[in-house]
Design a protein that fits this description.
about 290 residues; mainly alpha; MetI-like fold; 13 helices
Length: about 290
């Protein structure tokens, strides 16, 4: 009886998952990248930084599935360890952008007037610059290292969160539960962050997932230009930059890091699209 009782409840859940193929595929790809990064020491026995010039520029083989680079380092190992750096870039950049963008957006939407105009104008000024150009400018001023690169990427991600949170706040502050909390004497910070921001988490989560893909692309682009993570760090963009000098004889040096970037960004974008469909009340109401 227990099995018969659980089967009907499991089938609707499976059907719901099948309604969101983007969510499932994106979650699987993203989880795979996270696990590969965290379990890199268990998945390979090679050192990502140990040079062996006698094995340099080897093509993919049974001993080295992705081949070796110009210093004889196992390329698969460096791609796996590169996932760690990418995860660090996503975590720090998105967290910093959220920590600054969300409070500013809530304050702008709730108070309006001069406060709203000032914050919105600052966001518009940042929007006037193409993201990668603004990041190059900031890195050029602060210096080329991982921390400065993450700060630069976070800066051009902040306006998106300000605009999104502001628009959500403008809608949520007019709802009855917000007005009820205000009439009951709730403080303004409590209303902004407990009643408004908490109910705006669904679209913010979707935006954060989509931003994560942009962070990886921007970080890889800056590292490719020599303005991000510096060699010998196992970072995908820097690895592609090193491999471009050997495209004629060893295409795999840039191919495999490029594929890692492609699949990771694809997984994050699919995950974001799936979360948007799953958390959209209009779509959810059809289930």
């Amino acid at each position: 009886m227990t099995r018969a009782a659980t089967k009907p409840s499991q089938q609707p859940r499976r059907r719901k998952l099948l309604r969101y193929p983007n969510l499932v595929i994106g979650a699987v790809i993203t989880l795979a990248v996270v696990l590969m990064g965290l379990a890199a020491p268990l998945l390979t026995s090679y050192d990502p930084y140990l040079q062996n010039l006698g094995d340099s520029l080897q093509l993919p083989s049974a001993a080295h599935l992705f081949g070796t680079d110009e210093f004889g380092r196992d390329l698969l190992t460096r791609v796996l360890y590169g996932a760690r750096i990418s995860l660090l870039e996503v975590t720090l950049s998105v967290s910093l952008a959220l920590a600054i963008g969300l409070p500013l957006g809530v304050v702008a939407g709730y108070f309006g007037g001069v406060v709203d105009q000032t914050i919105t104008w600052c966001a518009d000024i940042l929007y006037a610059f193409p993201g990668i150009v603004l990041a190059i400018l900031i890195v050029s001023i602060l210096g080329t290292n991982l921390i400065n690169m993450l700060i630069a990427i976070s800066v051009f991600s902040i306006p998106g969160y300000i605009r999104l949170t502001r628009s959500l706040t403008l809608a949520l502050k007019e709802l009855q539960y917000t007005e009820a909390a205000l009439s009951l004497g709730a403080s303004v910070p409590r209303i902004m962050f407990l009643h408004i921001l908490r109910n705006a988490l669904a679209p913010i989560l979707v935006q954060a997932t989509l931003t994560a893909g942009e962070v990886i692309l921007s970080a890889a682009g800056l590292s490719f230009l020599g303005l991000g993570v510096q060699p010998p760090a196992a970072e995908w963009g820097a690895m592609m930059s090193e491999g471009r000098n050997y495209l004629g004889i060893a295409t795999h040096l840039s191919l495999f890091p490029g594929l890692a970037i492609t699949f990771t960004v694809l997984g994050l974008n699919l995950l974001g699209d799936g979360l948007r469909d799953r958390l959209d009340p209009r779509f959810r109401g059809r289930l």
